[in-house]
Amino acid sequence: MGAAGFEPAPFRSTKAGAWLAPRSPGLERGDQSSHSSFSRRAEEEAPVHAIFARTLSGSPNEPSCICDEAPDVCRVRHLPVSSWRYRRLMKFVRALALAAALLAGCSDARQATAPADEPGAGAAAEAFGPAPAVVDEPLAAEVDGSLDLLIGTAAVGGLDRDALEVVAQSGDARIAWLISDLLRFLQGGAEEDALVSAFVELTGVDVRDDPGFGESAWLSVTDHLIAWDLPAPPDYRERKAELFLAVEPAWEPFFADADSEIDWRLVSWGGVLIDDRPEGSDEPCPQGCIPALDDPALTAATEGDWYPDARSVFGVVVGGEAVAFPKHIMEIHEMVNITIGGRRIGIPYCTLCGSAQGYFLDAGPRRVAQPVLRTSGLLSRSNKVMYDLSSSSVLDTFTGKGLSGPLHDAGVTLPQTTVVASTWGAWKREHPETRIVAEDGGIGRDYPLDPLGGRDDDGPIFPVGDVDPRLPVQANVVGVIAPGGRAVAFPVEQALDALADGERVVAGGVEMVADGDGLRVRRRPGGELPAHQSFWFAWSQFHPATEVWSPPAS
Length: 554
What we know:
By secondary structure, the protein is an alpha+beta fold. The protein folds into three domains: 90-262, no CATH class; 293-437, no CATH class; 476-548, no CATH class.
């Protein structure tokens, strides 16, 4: 998901009541029904624009909005911490990753494929220290009741310090996940200080010693928890729901599915609300979302001179029909539903993880309606959480697997097609019959050429935890699932250089070939395999055992 056209503004301290609407009585803890019902709150109980505006109270940065939503919503798209501050943090993180990689014996003389030995472990995790010990038992009655009180009061307007003290003194590190969730909405001020102190007491780890802590306590706390992979406390989903549904009641179906495969520990709020507009709508979201673009107008390449040749596109070829999606338009909408070559395709673009993917929407079982992809406003380890508007099912944006709702129940995994990241000039030379999304998207709006303004240039701005140190965090890779289920990643710059030098780029039984100035993957021997480009941190977290191609040592 992505913001548009401004320097991120830091979140400001605010009372929980400025964020959260009255508590919902729904989803009783212990309810194991697959689709239990939450109570939807009336929108007037949670004036979302006012909530967001108060969050930015006193901000030194006043970014300009280019989105159609209310300006105070536009300002907080994915903005947990100012980017100028985060640059210093990421320099430290990169230094740690590099040092860890060297200690682990990595070098430029790697083999052609370098598999990960232990997914989720290794040098990157060491930067966060050993995980605290945890117990596998029910919460004590006093702690359980205090958690109810803590979450309940946060949802209606405050932070119960007495309840927080009881929770902290329990020493149950699992509860730190709920501390992280509270910190997402209570950043800065006395509330943050109290929550951080509770985290320290629960885990025995003083994150205030983390060099990145001064930039964002929430990022530091959550990165530690992800790296440690601590189990969640009992009734975590239900308690988290009480907080999150106070911000967006339309997330109710996601939380209500007790049998889903959603790892709620990794889910955070992306700073925007759900896009639940009907298919084909070109109206802005009434309270602020990242609006999908359904069936955009297309023009011939000869009519695409408005777009500079050096700018990036995401290219798709299906059934002999080529279509280019300008990156700056995708940065605004982050989701397209379109028919190409007679096939219905959904294309999510996660700006935070540098990944545009193409999914066939017309290949599911007949017993479920054809999906219509939308952006939920939630994130999972800095990857957008997409969902199907038709069934309210969450799908894994990176794999296309149904994680909740009817698509999960039906065992749906959307098949993929290749999305090539290329410049417009190179793409149209390779595909002279290509079409391109119209300059106004077919909806009569203006799109600035650089809406994000370098927002992600200095590393992830949302928690990702430990990152595999074999490549830089945001190195561009093209990833593919090779025959036999092996994940293989090809660093884009190195692969293109090798192809330009006349070398073959082969690993894991697949071969890279150029398309425009992007890359495709094909079997050896055989036809094409679906592939897409992404940042390394995203590919490696979904495929921790991935092999990594690198040029043979000279």
